[in-house]
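Table 4 source record.
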Amino acid sequence: MSHLNCNSIRRSQLSTTALLLSILISTVSPLQAQVGGGTDVNTSKLANYQNECAIAKNPTNKLQLFASCNNALGGLFATRSTNGGITWTYPDADKTIADGDANQGALACCDPTLAWDNFGNLFVTYLGNANTIVTLLSTDGGLTFNNLASFGPASVDQPTVAAAAGQVWIVWNQSNQMVARGAAVTGLGVANVGAFGTLLTIPNTTGCSFGDLAISPGGAVVQTCETPTGGQGPATIRVNTKADGLGPNPFSAGVAATTTNVGGFDFIPAQNTRSVDSEAGLAYDALAASGGNPASPHFGRLYLVYTEEPVNENNDTDIMVRFSDNDGLNWSNPPIRVNDDATTRSQFLPRIASNALSGNIAVCWHDARNSAANTAMQEFCSIATPSGATPTFFANAQIGDAASTGTGSNPPAAGQLDIQFGDYSGLAYFQGLAHPIWADVSNSTGDNPDGTTRWDAYTDRVTGGPAANEGDPHITTVDGTHYDFQSAGEFVVLRDRGGMEIQTRQTAVSTASVITNPYTGLTTCVSLNTAVAARVGEHRVTFQPDLSGVPNPDGLQLRIDGQLKQLGPGGIQLGASARIVPSSGSGIQIDFPDDSTMIVTPGWWSSQSKWYLNVNVFQTSALEGIMGARMPGSWLPSLADGTSLGPKPAALAQRYTDLYQKFADSWRVTKSNSLFDYASGTSTDTFTIASWPPQNPPCTLPDAIPVKPLSLAIAKRACRAITSKARKEDCIFDVRVTGEVGFAKTYLMSHRLEAGATQVVINDTPDPSKPGETVLLTATVRPMNKQGIPSGTIEYMLDGKRGGDAGKLDARGQATWRIPKMQPGKHQITVNFRPDRGSPYLPSSSQVEMHTVTGDR
């Protein structure tokens, strides 16, 4: 067994105050991408080249990731994360799976490929220097490895490993033809992996390579490859299927899924010495793998991504996706173009992955759209929801922080191959976060102070777009569309097929004046969010006024599964990956199992004896609902059945019908799907006014005196401290029409939080430790807005007691302590950050880190 030293690092939590800032998006403009990256991380930082990287995420523990890349000076670079990709540690002192490690059965060479199954087995496959295919197995997230299998000697190229449905398969090119071997997997560990079957030759794959492998939820095994493997095209992408998995039948004769003008060695300006291939990749909609619904319309759909060049040798390469609903026998036509640029520049080295929790599809790639010379790339990503007949890829998001030149170092440094970005990149996608990894020479993280040109392995955390439902209410969807929705009743505002769902209750308000929304063009009345409900894992959570209906200015009621709860400072855990904690202004924050976070901020309207709520969501994989994403060409988010309303009608009357009848009724909560709690004799129908808002004023309700508006000057003065344009406009609307200046206070609170939120990450090593062994604790404070390095002090708490004097953050935003002589057992460690006086940054606290001290010395 190869022991790889690592640290124990856990995901931190944000301070409940600071979390507000990262999700409020009133400043988002229409058509902004619904995905976004965080801060790029240089995972390698070695004084040589790392490229051709793979990355995998543990489906049994969403905080664990493992990545491996080619290392120019020998061995395979390897790194692992235990906090969801925020920080990374290395398996041994030189950050490599060492070349010549006798415990691995063969010499490490190159072309790593990774797979993590639902038992928690991490499979690492690569080419050995002795012409072998080597597969290692880890059961502890890449901390230690066992040699599982070695095949060969043989001629080999770019192997792929895949694990799902109780199987592990490896496919590679041998003697100019694709071959495969598979084994049954029944549990965690080497003892639960059966013997690999005999070598299977895959028909009609002579001269085929540079491919991928996928296993369907039903157990079918599908491989793809490109032929020919040389030249600048055209080429054919072939697909072969073994429908019975580990059964006795062979791979099928295969089909030509598509042709492409990108050949096996197609030279483009951004990769002018190494070239690119079409880099075909596969991913299944395997929703059931994480407990999803096999009856979902596209459960088991297979996706194929590849690079196309519409006109041969014009370097205008694009990223294309096709799909198959019968395990690769037939493919959709025409293909779906993923990159949305209007340039004639290059996109290349795509990777595709499926979020097993929601069924969404992520694609990331290298993109030169912003390079006038077509020579510098940035990493881009997009996400698609499988709703409707075809997947809908939304606006592309730039993930890589800086442009990375692809011209290479000519000649390369001694002992290093000048293969630039390499043949492929990596992507993992699970529970709301996608994690691309790519070769990059941009030095965007400043880790190469000597200015040398070298390819390092960069990664990022790609999250779903933030969404907002604020004020009267103003909606900002996950793809950045900003519109007003003043209907009355209960509505699904966000959901995905993995079970995550948020509903809001909108209550009509009688007003003397009306408002006009610039996006819809409609002049309508006012309603307010007055209650919210959510499905959080296996639990149902509500935050709503007293069920008796008697107004209570003391606060809203929190219920979990119908039971009234008191929310203390420490919050309430809803399983290992979900929780409810207090937020500012008597609000709540809910962290969902899929990494979505919702913050509900209430305000009390004393003259009307009403609570009103701002609902903000970030880092979500949900793309459906009132706050969901639009299909291309649609003016509103999709309907509940996945269909589109199409372009914005010219006639205002038709816009009203679309928005307040078709759209509203599509997402209106029913008695069968409501998540709210109700008093006896009431239901969702009690809160529904189907005719609200009326198409034309007046905006009055029976037995309700219309609220008196305020002047524009007063409203502007109340909202003057808010500098973001869209939020200020929303604030002025709300204050002016309702006459309630309290709206300005909630907007201002959100505005002030926006620039200062911080996050604390704990790194404690070694973990577990031995009695008497000193533990090194490192706390890193990061701004959520990606700007600057916070300054201030840090203190840590050990088992609820102050563990030492407060330490000052250094220039990297870090503070460290040495904790000696911890007693055997489990200990709780937390860290608190306090910013310097006058700092724009806000305080925050880490999540509890459980540290184990063993009983043995």
